[in-house]
Amino acid sequence: MNFASGYSPTTIWIETLPKANRICLIDDTGRVYDKSGVEISLVYQDNGKTLKIFIEPLSEEEKEKVKEEISAGWAESLEGVLEESLKRALATHGTFKWITDRFEKGL
């Protein structure tokens, strides 16, 4: 995020959120703003009375990195779920054949 030099003298805090790449704004009517693939920076001003949120698109390189992280996390999560499901099925029914038969039948 490129902030102008000499930002307001009432600025007391600026932070770029390095892991966040999606922002959702929710009010009493529900979700009013939702955007992915962005860099988010917060600026706290006016002795704590104003919060400004700056949103810029991620570079193509950053977007690819996010996609890879999401894919890796999803694959790891799915692997864990499948492993636990197989362990329970084997403990309950005792054979791998029972599991594969159910899978082939779409059950």
What this model shows, in words?
The chain has 107 residues and is α+β, with helices and mostly antiparallel strands. It has two domains: 9-58, no CATH class; 59-107. 40% of the residues lie in helices and 32% in strands. It contains two helices and five strands, in the order βββββαα. A hairpin with a 4-residue loop joins β4 (38-45) and β5 (50-57). The protein is elongated and about 70 Å long. The model is unreliable at 1-6 (pLDDT under 50).
Characterize the overall form. elongated
Helix content: 40-55%
Rg from Cα: 23 Å
Tell me what portion of residues adopts beta-strand conformation: 25-35%
Q: What is the end-to-end distance?
A: 51 Å
**Number of separate strands:** 5
Give the number of helices.
Answer: 2
Protein structure class: alpha+beta
Strand order, largest beta sheet: 1-4-5
Query: How many distinct folded domains?
Result: 2
Give a brief outline of the structure.
This protein is an alpha+beta fold and 107 residues long.
Topology (elements, then pairings):
Elements: E1 13-17, E2 22-27, E3 30-36, E4 38-45, E5 50-57, H1 60-93, H2 96-104
Antiparallel strand pairs: 1-4, 2-3, 4-5
Keywords:
three-stranded antiparallel beta sheet, 2 helices, 107 residues, two-stranded antiparallel sheet, elongated, disordered N terminus, 2 domains, alpha+beta
